[in-house]
Amino acid sequence: MKRLLICLLLSGCQAFAQTPVAAVLQKPSEEIHHTIAKMLGVPEIRLANKALMEDSQLLIERSKLQSLSLEKPEIFRLSLIGTSCWLERVSTGQRRELKEASCKAK
Predict the structure, then answer these.
(1) pTM of the entire structure?
(2) How far is CA 12 from CA 1, 66, 83, 85, in A?
């Protein structure tokens, strides 16, 4: 019985540690540009210098060429899972771990 209780307590702590926490970048990272471009299937993307440094979400609108775009913007969310920094494309649920970017809980 004691072993079962200890096992349940440990697994509960482990599950809690894996809960995503909203995060922001500690400094600008080229990895963000490359990862977002890859997730969108485009060769490159231009982002503001402070993208994801003050807010954990980033909205990207499609390019508007002489007309109004009715497409929904893409939303990306930065989070910490344990000590790893992750970027999620909200519309698809696709996540990528960022190996070089440094982030902190918001």
Answers:
(1) 0.77
(2) 17, 54, 18, 22
